Amino acid sequence: MTPIILVxxxxxxxxxxxxxxxxxxxxxxxxxxxxxxNGAEAxxxxxxxxxxxxxxDIIMPNIDGxxxxxxxxxxxxxxxxxxxxxxxxxxxxxxxxxxxxxxxxVKPLQMSDLSITLKKTLAAxxxxxxxxxxxxxxxxxxxxxxLATSVAHELNxxxxxxxLNTEITTEEVDNGNYDSVAETLAMTTKQVKKAISIxxxxxxxxxxxxxxxxxxxxxxxxxxxxxxxxQQQLKRDSIEVxxxxxxxxxxxxxxxxxxxQVFTNLLNNAKDALKDAxxxxxxxxxxxxxxxxxxxxxxxxxxxxxxxxNSIFTPFFTTKDMGNGTGLGLSISYNIxxxxxxxxxxxxxxxxxxxxxxxxxxxxxx
Length: 366
Description:
CATH topology of the largest domain: Heat Shock Protein 90
Strand content: 15-25%
Structural class: alpha/beta
Oligomer: single chain
Largest sheet: 5 strands, parallel
């Protein structure tokens, strides 16, 4: 996937200069440029397009570069930003760096300096992405470890039926009762397919993933498949699951296994929150609002203290006992939803449970 760089500058000759300087890189797919003349235009582009890097001037009409940096830091924290300012404008440069800018350049722009800065920033983006993929893979494997007992129960049921049917078939053949053999074998085949489905699902969930595996998918289907792996755990812990899945959802262009990881993380958190609850219930609801599909996962647990809500998506933040959580699950979930151009939020009050809300745009392949 070609990295996209958004250049925000009100100088009219900037697009032509940059496209001319980097035409080889553009033609080779090393990166792609988009252009905006002010912060307001930039925010409109960011809302619709998956941008990897923003290079912005500071002095601009409407929303200036510093205000744009603040908005990017709040709404698009994974985007790397480079600020461009006049030589000697140390105050604004310092303010920009404090707002989260990754690097800065001074005007007049030297194309050699710009080239080095762009490549250095893209290298940093790629390194972060690789680290995130490693964390995602580790989290998936950790989830599989936690689900091992539940999966063993899920496999035990079809295997038990297969074993019983094998004994029955042997007896029927020995007794010459061939008429019922076909029916018994058909039942056995059904159970074999069920076991294969569970195993394949686990293999897909645990393997490494890439951007090319995005596809048109129904959210309700991903939720249903995620719940399959939790059935025995939830049953063991006497947790009721209420599914309010709307048939009105449109498909989303997504990475199904990554979204399943998000739902797995949320289900694990809800399950842990219900450990000491008097009423143990998880409600999963889906519905559509205009061009947005919404998933809510609500539990009747003890809730999250207000002081922890602002840190809930921060890497390594956890309120679980030592050894019972890495503090990465919600952080990884946040990043996955951001990659899908969506939003994830939480509402909670102590003693009144918690609701995680995910908003995903309807089908889009951009």
